[in-house]
Design goal:
The complex is a heterodimer of chains A (about 525) and B (about 350). Chain A has helices spanning about 55-65, 85-90, 110-115, 125-140, 155-170, 185-200, 210-220, 240-250, 315-320, 345-350, 360, 370-375, 390-405, 420-435, 450-465, 480-485, 505-515, 520-524, and strands at about 20-25, 30-40, 45-50, 70-75, 80, 95, 175, 205-210, 220-225, 230-235, 270-280, 290-300, 300-305, 330-335, 335, 350-355, 385, 390, 440-445, 470-475, 485-490, 495-500. Chain A has about 525 residues and is α/β, with parallel strands linked by helices. Chain A is globular and about 75 Å long. Chain A starts with 17 loop residues before the first strand and ends with a helix. With about 350 residues, chain B is mainly alpha-helical. Chain B has a single domain (about 45-315), classed as ABC transporter involved in vitamin B12 uptake, BtuC (Orthogonal Bundle). Helix content of chain B is about 70%, strand content about 5%. Chain B has helices at about 15-40, 45-55, 60-85, 90-110, 115-145, 145-165, 200-215, 215-225, 230-235, 240-265, 275-285, 295-315, 320-340, and strands at about 5-10, 190, 195, 340-345. In chain B, helix 11 (about 275-285) crosses helix 12. The termini of chain B are close together.
Chain lengths: ~525, ~350
């Protein structure tokens, strides 16, 4: 690539677009940021790397005026500035695209671009707004459809609208929070190209991520945060993923193939333990979400489910665990047809479920840690016998689960929402592993976790596979699927596009399947 | 420079601070009420002293409180039980009337020995309350219709139904009273002074419900459904079944309050018999933060406030003033509860 050759070099003596000096922010009992220095030069893409809770978001919230720093200075173009509100930061040319888009779904692209913008003409027809939007899209070379309603757009298109919205307000520093988390590989490449073009004119980008490879690919410099402090800033050309991982977590992390079995591991069974036979299911609104899905999972095997989020993964995991009824087709467990959706029967049959939205459906956030920990075993001895619930036995069980999950809990009576996301996920995983004698359905088990917690989670899954359970691993991280799965099925718009053996497989092919294309179609 | 002060929300309220916020809320409400009373030309301190001596200074005063506390604990419990499953039963008032109505029908028209009539009245009262919440319950369980509105609207139906029968077909034709039924054939026996056996029944029921919620498999499931229905569904708990049984239980408890009120205190059915106990039950439950054991104490507090109101009325204050004070206490308590989640931090200017 020749991007580096086009790189904008500011004349010497040019001040950084943004300079942070000694920034600190304290929350009760937590140091969110302390002593953070950061310089972003014109023309650079500056990656901000760090685990969950490293202080990336807080730092960016300070820079965009959402929080005010307890200590330190913000210097923009050489002038000391204070942002009391996000509007002041926007006026100073700092714009941010959040991980969760802030678009009005029912409005058109043009309306979203012009919403809350002082440049919006006072009296403007739809045509005028759309023409202005088309002009902006051309100016920044971001392809959009001005007249389309946002809810009809793909995630990648919505992100372009967000970026256009920020750029239209004359932002010179664009902050992107985990921008590729929701994109297909092709969409991500397109985004990178747009970012390169944006900085080539002397603007700058702060790119927040925890994906090492993409940071290596896109950035010019990398700053690493850990525990609220900045650990280092390096030229990307001097970095490699291994060293970044070390800086980020402060310890060695091995991203490696975990498909190998030890001598004690259970073999892959002859007969499948879980079979979906032409299963279809509907979503909450009654619209079809799964169509004619046929899948087989063997004991001692990991079946990966790849696909961009929102293509039926949620419904699939619910059908597999008896939470959602099927509209047609059948689910067989150990050769036995499971009639009707009955989550209790599935669980009693040895099917564990790590749900994708743990706070929404895997836990009752307001209830105690004990109550949540025993959710799968409250109905049987020792926790309950003869309908009598024994809080003391429940506490003992909760302590066992917490110990297995390696989570230190000062007070089991406190609401589970007070735990960090990683600890919640570990508790849920351990709780489910206890009952998952036959099958574990793990939906996005590493979502929202940092590298260390992801490794723990994946180790749990491998451990269970070796114990002889069949695993269905739903994930949007291709690397994770490739590292763990024996076979990978790709889900697109509720259909299985294909199931591929994970041997010498072509990543490009998976990417195409995720985008709803088969190789043959692409060639045609 | 002072810097700018900012409010920060904490994930959980410290129990000590929450308690202090409550005490402050009640104190401020009484203080403001005192000012209002002083403006009206009376001496608030002297009035306060009179209220306290009349409430606690004699067995009669204590007995009055004991009689008042029974329906308040029960209607409060009814609302609190509904909250456990995530339902707002605003219709305790209507279920109270329905229970009183059904129990009166037994007491007026079924012949038999006292004990048998009492048992039948008990059954009729609880079933009456449960029937009154049946339609809102099914509408919520099967069509997700908000129970807040349906239970509330049925209050008016029950209130008017009781007015109608007690001044119409069931009225006392002996000529003594035109707006009430004749005396019922069975009474709840006295427990202490004029306090009937409803007193230990109300407290016992609150304790039983509290125990069942904490120490039974059923209670665990109900708490989970009430806190997060999708988690309960995920755990394989029959959400709809629990919603229906718990809402019916809530209605039955309010109906029992109505039955005990007519069979223990008033001894005949008449319009306006509820004295707003059903609505006050909402306050009792909110003050107790939905805790079934807590309603015993918040019920007692509410009984004291109501009783004070009666005493104050003999001193020339109107019912509206007393109700305003009651509402003000609840209002400030709600604010205090919310504020106990915040702390003030000083930002660098």
């Amino acid at each position: 690539m020749n991007e580096t050759e086009n790189r904008f070099t500011p004349p010497s003596g040019t001040p950084p677009i943004v300079q942070l000096k000694g920034i600190a922010k304290y929350f009760p009992g937590v140091i969110a940021n302390e002593d953070v220095d950061l310089e972003v030069m014109p023309g650079e893409i500056h990656a901000l790397l760090g685990e969950n809770g490293a202080g990336k978001s807080t730092l960016m919230n300070i820079l965009t005026g959402i929080y005010q720093a307890d200590k330190g200075e913000i210097i923009i173009d050489g002038y000391d500035r204070e942002f009391a509100t996000p509007l002041q930061a926007i006026a100073a040319g700092i714009g941010m695209v959040h991980q969760h888009f802030k678009l009005v779904q029912a409005f058109t692209v043009a309306e979203n671009i012009h919403l809350g913008w002082d440049q919006t003409p006072k009296r403007a027809s739809r045509q005028v707004l759309e023409a202005r939007t088309a002009e902006l899209a051309k100016k920044f070379n971001l392809e959009t459809r001005p007249g389309a309603t946002v809810s009809d757009l793909s995630t990648g298109e919505q992100q372009r609208v967000e970026i256009l919205r920020v750029l239209a307000r004359q932002a010179r520093l664009l902050i992107l929070d985990e921008p590729t988390a929701v994109l297909t590989p092709a969409e991500a490449r397109e985004l990178f190209r747009a970012l390169r073009e944006f900085v080539s004119g002397g603007n700058a980008v702060i790119f927040i991520s925890h994906k090492l490879d993409e940071v290596m690919e896109i950035s010019d410099r990398i700053s690493i945060l850990r525990g609220g402090r900045k650990i280092a800033t390096r030229e990307t050309s001097e970095c490699n993923p291994h060293m970044l991982a070390n800086l980020m977590v402060g310890r060695e992390i091995v991203l490696a193939d975990m498909r190998g079995r030890g001598p004690d591991a259970a073999p892959v069974s002859e007969k499948p333990i879980l079979v979906l036979d032409k299963v279809s299911a509907a979503d909450e609104t009654g619209a079809p979400a799964l169509e004619d899905i046929s899948l087989q999972v063997h004991a001692g095997e990991i079946l990966g489910i790849a696909g961009v989020a929102g293509n039926g993964q949620r419904e699939l995991s619910q059908v597999l665990t008896g939470v959602r009824p099927v509209t047609s087709g059948q689910v067989f467990v150990d050769g036995k047809p499971m009639k009707g959706a009955n989550a209790a029967a599935f669980a009693a049959f040895g099917i564990g479920h790590i749900p994708e939205d743990r706070l929404h459906s895997g836990l009752a956030p307001a209830l105690s840690i004990t109550t949540n920990a025993v959710m799968r075993e409250y109905g049987k001895p020792p926790v309950s016998s003869g309908g009598v619930y024994n809080p003391r036995s429940a506490l003992t069980l909760a302590k066992d689960i917490a110990a297995a999950a390696d989570v230190a809990i000062p007070d089991f009576g406190m609401p589970v929402r007070n735990l960090s996301g990683g600890n919640q996920q570990r508790l849920v995983a351990r709780r489910e592993m206890r009952i998952a004698d036959r099958v574990l359905v793990a939906a996005y088990p590493s979502r929202g976790l940092d590298v260390g917690a992801i490794n723990t989670m994946l180790r749990y899954i491998v451990e269970l596979r070796d114990a002889g359970a069949g695993i269905i691993l739903i994930s949007e991280e291709l690397e994770e699927l490739l590292n763990l799965s024996d076979r990978i099925a790709v889900l697109y718009e509720g259909k299985v596009m294909g199931v591929v053996e994970n041997d010498n497989l072509d990543i490009e092919e998976i990417g195409l399947l995720m985008g709803g294309r088969t190789k043959a179609k692409e060639a045609a | 420079m002072f810097g700018s002060l900012r409010l920060q929300r904490l994930p959980s309220a410290h129990p000590g601070i929450a308690l202090a916020a409550r005490a402050a809320a009640i104190f401020i409400a009484l203080f403001v009420a005192g000012i209002a009373i002083a403006i009206a030309g009376m001496n608030p301190i002297e009035l306060g002293g009179r209220v306290i001596s009349a409430s606690f200074g004699s067995a009669f005063g204590m007995e009055d409180l004991g009689v008042l506390v029974i329906p308040l604990i029960l209607t409060g419990l009814a609302v609190a039980v509904g909250q456990q499953i995530g339902a707002w039963n605003i219709g305790a008032e209507g279920q109270f009337y329905a229970g009183a109505f059904a129990a009166s029908a037994v007491g007026l028209f079924v012949p038999g020995p006292q004990w048998m009539i009492l048992i039948l009245m008990f059954i009729a009262g609880t079933v009456g309350g449960a029937v009154w919440i049946l339609v809102p319950t099914l509408a919520r369980a099967y069509a997700n219709v908000n129970e807040l509105i349906t239970t509330l609207l049925l209050n008016f139906v029950a209130t008017l139904l009781v007015y109608y029968v007690s001044t119409g077909p069931w009225r006392d034709r002996s000529g003594m009273a035109n707006s009430a039924t004749p005396p019922l054939s069975a009474d709840v026996p006295y427990f202490w002074g004029i306090v009937h056996w409803g007193f230990p029944i109300a407290i016992g029921l609150a304790v039983v419900v509290a125990l069942a919620l904490s120490f039974s498999k059923w209670g665990y499931e109900v708490r989970l459904v009430g806190s997060n229905p999708s988690a309960a569904k995920y755990a394989g708990i029959p959400v709809r079944k629990h919603l229906i049984t718990v809402m019916l239980l809530s209605g039955a408890i309010a109906g029992l309050a109505g039955m005990l009120e007519i069979a223990g205190t008033v001894h005949r059915l008449q319009g306006g018999i509820s004295n707003n106990f059903g609505y006050l039950g909402i306050m009792v439950a909110v003050l107790a933060r939905g805790s079934p054991l807590g309603v015993i104490f918040s019920g007692a507090l509410m009984a004291f406030i109501l009783n004070s109101g009666i005493i104050l009325q003999t001193q020339g204050l109107t019912t509206s003033v007393v109700l305003a004070i009651t509402g003000f206490i609840l209002f400030l308590t709600a604010i205090g509860d919310e504020l106990s989640y915040y702390r003030i931090t000083r930002e660098k200017a």
